[in-house]
Amino acid sequence: MAIGGDPGNRGIIAVVGKKSGRGRVVAMPIALDGVIAIGVVFIYDQLAHLQPPLRIMKDDEHAVELVLGGRGAIRDGSDWHPVGLGDLLWSGPGEATIGRSEAHDPYRCLALRLRTCPGWPRPVARRTRWDGPPAPEEFARQAVQWWLDARIERGLLCQHVVGALAFAAHRHQATTVAGLPAGLARVEALIGQDYRRDLAVGELAAAAGWSVQHLHAVCRRERGCGPHALLLARRLRAARELLAAGDAPLAEVAAASGFADATALCRAFRRASGTSPGAWRALHRM
Asked: Rounded CA gap, 112 and 263, in Å?
């Protein structure tokens, strides 16, 4: 299938709701502004009695796999985790796609390759579930049909398909918060509350009750990036919200979102989004 996509497809944000302890719906943005384009969409059928190639993502690519049947396994560090129907897998830089298949029950999956900004971390946990509707097979066939239809604008296709997968992953995460290690949940809560101030990794590790090394390991396993990347992502999210909401000077936006100055904001923003804060604001102003 031919590689395609729209390099201008940036700034995709899906906002979903999650019930708080008091029943209030809280906005939970999923920022997909690091996605440049879909490289390819296809349904992969693994041959019986053979093993799939172990493909490791480069710095500027992500892979999303939705398992449609059969059984396989994905590598996480030195461990292998079984996958089956309905499992939704998102692999970022340095992570591998499904690398093992059951000999007598080979897996099949919807597979997407995404071109992303270099170093962009995964927006969701690596292993979640597609809970539907529609059924995984139905969504997969529709996604491939849209991909093959040259009349469909590539940017909108990217926004819809990748957004639907990210939303499904987030929805699963939102209903299985108990599965997140308690220490990492405390770290993310601290980042959400105090991202404007200078949070050292040692302080984050102390909040988790772990060593710095263990915090890095758990962060990478659960979120696909280090703790500093989590903090940076939260600051960039705050900056995007301020940019979309008004005309505040970049120096004020930087200070309010935790950056040292406007130069630091511009540098981080361009690295994550591939564009400047000013250009992003012009496209997304409310």
From this structure: 35
d(CA 283, CA 286): 9
What is 83-127 written as a DSSP string? E-TTEEEEE-TT-B---EE-SSSB-EEEEEEEEE-TTPPPSS-SE
User: Residue 22 and residue 19: Cα distance in Å, rounded?
Assistant: 8
Indicate the Cα dihedral angle 173, 176, 178, 179, nearest 10°. Answer: -70
Task: Give the CA angle between residues 201, 205, 208 to the nearest 5°.
Answer: 145
CA 129 to each of CA 18, 65, 79, 90, 255: distance values in angstroms, whole numbers, following the listed order: 17, 11, 19, 11, 38
Integer Cα distance of 255 and 260 in angstroms: 7
Work out the burial of residue 221: count CB atoms within 10 Å of its CB; fewer than 13 is exposed, 13-18 middle, 19 or more buried.
Answer: middle
For residues 149 and 218, what is the distance between their CA atoms, to the nearest angstrom? 41
In this prediction, the residues of the chain whose per-residue pLDDT falls under 50 are: 1-29
Q: What Å distances lie between residue 121 and 92, 215, 230, 253, 255, CA to CA?
A: 6, 16, 9, 23, 24
108-149 tens-digit pLDDT: 999 999 999 887 888 888 888 887 778 899 999 999 999 999
pLDDT for position 204:
94
Under a CB-based contact definition with an 8 Å cutoff, are residues 188 and 219 in contact? no
Tens-place pLDDT, residues 188-214: 888 988 899 999 999 999 988 899 999
What residue ranges define each of the domains in the chain, with the CATH number in brackets? 13-178 (2.60.120.280), 180-284 (1.10.10.60)
